[in-house]
Amino acid sequence: MIRAVYHAVTGEPEKLARAIAVEETVEVPEALIDERTNREIVGRVEGTERLPDGRFALRIAYPTDLVKCLPDLLSVAYGNVSMMEGVRLAGLDLPPEVLARFRGPGFGVEGIRDLLGVRGRPLVCTVLKPRGATDEHFAKVAEEFALAGGDIVKEDNNLLDATQGDFERRVGRCVEAVARANRKTGRSCLYFANACAAVDRLERTAEAAIRLGAQGILIPPLLLGLDVVRDIAARHRLAVMAHPAFSGTFFEDRRHGIEPGILLGTIYRLAGVDISIFVNHGGRFNYRREECDGVARALRAPLGRIRTAFAAPAGGMTIDRVKEMASEYGPDTVLVFGGAILGDSAGIGKATEACLARVLSLFPDRPGARA
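^ that's the sequence the OP posted. Answer follows.
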């Protein structure tokens, strides 16, 4: 069985739990549910309990036969429930036979480390922004960051191109800039191109990223569709970094939506995400420490044979928070700095070196750590 836990604001937990179990499976009045349907298809209420905050936890099990693909899973776990007021998907436990239907990250933590030749420490990433800057500017930023020892250059999610040619010109220049730096340093800084494009251009965008030499793509799963991302990740040899754009509607009202760890952690891993960016607490958005920790745990938790993925806290992070974030999230983390590196008065290179120095003070250099 697929087991889901919902937190609900209600005084009639048993009645609501049954309503959810029916709504998510057969979606008909009780009078139309015969004994066989009830036994074999309708979700099974396994219990309810009052939580310390006054809400109720509703535990419902769904037959595994209802889920053959990612859209099935999303529909069963939170399809029509998403339109019920005051109900939040708070837990999702998937059995081995369901997990076996998903490939998961194509690279995962170890695969990304293999590309970089970096072991035992968090990775440092910067962001190419703002939209409107020239390709030459972006290439210069990317090269300076890579020369200073940075690990990953990613394009901003707002770098949206009017034409395929615009995309290819920018990516081509930036990839070559990073390659020049890599030849000088002997390192392997990675480049992630923004692949947020119309569906009829998405395939060409992914193919162009590979042809131009990018090792990965930045993609917003909730803008393009989770199963679209899964398909792209499965068919192309590109690492996938997920941007959380559009996700806030699931998290902001804590009486409703989905726990961040389930969506940005478990479900994103099922969709093939290798690095999941999430809004860190204490930044420019209102997220709690326990929610952020939940995302990191879900990206690393056992999930059948599916690879673990990198947690990437972001959202207005400053260099003086490196120690805090590295200590909280551990070595399998990508530390994302946009303005903190781009706007540092000492320059991009010095800011990058300062980030790495702080990381290495917590995770000392050793063979393979900075290959």
